[in-house]
What we know:
By secondary structure, the chain is of the alpha/beta class.
Amino acid sequence: MTYIAKPPLRHPTLHENRVGYTRRDYEGRVSTLCAGCGHDSISAAIVQACWELDIEPHRVAKLSGIGCSSKTPDYFLGASHGFNTVHGRMPSVLTGANLANRELIYLGVSGDGDSASIGLGQFAHAMRRGVNMTYIVENNGVYGLTKGQFSATADPGSKSKKGAINSDTAIDLVQVALQLGASYVGRSFSGDKEQLIPLIKGAIRHRGAALIDVISPCVAFNNHAGSTKSYDYVRAHNEAVNRLDFMPQRDAITAMYAPGEVIEVTQHDGSMLRLRKLAEGYDPGDRLAAMAHIAAHDARGEILTGLLYVDAGAADLHEHLKTVSAPLNSLGERELCPGAAALAVINAELA
Ligand SMILES: Cc1ncc(C[n+]2csc(CCOP(=O)(O)OP(=O)(O)O)c2C)c(N)n1
Ligand code: SF4
Ligand SMILES: [Mg+2]
């Protein structure tokens, strides 16, 4: 039952995107997650974002760790490259793959246990290095796959299904990513596709480390009264700072807003992020102010969502390291063994 392929039959009138693919071409196998799991909604949002961005599926590399969330890459982008790593080790494998071939689009999918517990060190280093990736954390506050233990993102005072109260301080991956220099940081809710899809599109087109923390309720182990990651709690405490319209370079801007209502951010590929302000005075270009704003809302038990921070001019790991621009597997003997004269120059520099 674990791997169920979808039947290849498809409706003949399905709409194709600009590169000739239908939405079905971005799907994967049939999900085996619990009915109602937030993670399935995130998979659907990834499918929609990639289809709308006209990405050729074979240009994507999707990587994950271990957990229900980390299983989901099997349920989307079935024709893309995939690597299911050891628990918590996705960021280093993704970093290595990205260094070897910068031409692919890197999508890291993880859980709160995978990234904030066993993988916290790996998470931190991928963020601080500015690896060019879209890193999605499917955050349900528990280890869903191993039957609902509190994870490191569970809020203090929240109640487990069996009635235990969590006494540990929560790790907020959004705050960690901001502190470590991530250049695109958003938070969303699996039940709000209108917010999530443009956030994913913007992240994919961003150059640098992009984190989206998506609150994604676990209906089996963390959707009861007393949980701060349940559907009811998130709906009641969701405070969006802005609404993002993602505009690819080719699209003309049609929606007009009064001056001051929208912040426009042009990314390195020419795509534009149009942020309709919902919170008065919120500036997504000010890292420290964003951190203070998030902390203030957190103290009131509110969950701040939207594009919380963006630096469209950030450099990525390749720029920091001044790496060769071609994928390593395309380099020939001439580039890899440039000869004794080139070696002598390097040795002289080190003398
Ligand atoms: C090295 C190692 N330690 C522990 C486990 C057991 N384990 C499997 S999944 C998991 C936690 C997953 O939690 P999370 O990343 O939040 O994913 P979710 O299932 O909640 O989506 C743990 C501890 C493991 N597979 N490998
Ligand atoms: S156990 Fe929780 S996280 Fe795992 S599939 Fe079921 S609802 Fe989703
Ligand atoms: Mg989890």
